[in-house]
Amino acid sequence: MFSEFFEGHSLRKVTMRRNVITSLGIVGIAALTLTGCQAADPAGAESAAADAPITIATIPMSDDPTAENPVDVLVELLEAETGREVEVTDVPDYLSVVEAIRADHVDIGIMSGFPSALAVNTGEVDALLAWPGDDKPVSTCVVLNDSPVKTPADLKGKTIAFADQASSSGYFMPVSMLHEAGLEQGTDYEAIFAGGHEGSFAALEQGQVDAACTAFMLTEMGAPMFPFEDGEWRAVGESAPMAVMGSVLARQSLDAETRTQLEEALPKVFSAENKERLAGYGGFAGLEPVIAPKPDFFSSFADIAAIAGVELEDLK
């Protein structure tokens, strides 16, 4: 997706020299990176890195050609704040973002709370900054308006779509909510993974599942992020809040100048005034970030991860 902004902006091409990495393609990144770095000159590397494009791994956010893509907006704003070119690599899911960072294939990735905790726990990825959570519920499960399901307990025996196995709002938090209602995955309901929130909504719309669990924030945004009109859907249940909303993860080899530049630029990119344009990233806009949080900042996720069958210590 190459984009140009016309109305309301000066005419400029957003630098989207976009690469696409499949899940299988991630496996070879580390070997390629090591091979390419063997002859590098350490004395000149730091200076060269500070002038190189900033690289970001992202998952797909929106394919609606009539709406401004939040990834394009992120690139535009980050280029404006840093004065540097920004390149995007598309990957299929959150875990592929983490692997791209771990392998030094990209500089940064923007993640929600749980995949951030999983990544930081490996000891091979740094949290550049993180946004603390609030006291609002994170997730809900969406059903069509004519569904007999009224409460989370009514989803027993049903098929439920989740966004991604590493998604905070689209997996971990709703699984915890269903656990609190007495329902266990694989025993009381069937889970399918739709490859993203859009896929979950499509599966619900097409009658392939009985419910789609997602972020409350998306249900409040309307089209194109949420495809259902008022009267077509209902929310079933509310998850607990999260202690950490999300983070920007960085490769540990990121040069000091770029690291400092990003720590200064990203809070400005995610300012309240950019909330609407950032769309799917807008949940972080206006929040006060913690710069360079320590790994224990994410420790609150351990219990909820265990409900979903994930032990943080097993991911090192």
TrEMBL record:
Cleavable signal peptide: 1-39
InterPro entries named in the record: PhnD (IPR005770)
Tagged with keyword Signal: yes
GO biological process terms on file: transmembrane transport
UniProtKB keywords: Signal
Pfam families (UniProt xref): Phosphonate-bd
Keyword Iron-sulfur: no
GO CC aspect terms: ATP-binding cassette (ABC) transporter complex
SUPFAM superfamilies the record matches: Periplasmic binding protein-like II
Stored Gene3D superfamilies: Periplasmic binding protein-like II
Family to which the UniProt record says this protein belongs: Belongs to the phosphate/phosphite/phosphonate binding protein family.
Name of the protein in its database record: Phosphonate transport system substrate-binding protein
Lineage of origin: Bacteria, Bacillati, Actinomycetota, Actinomycetes, Micrococcales
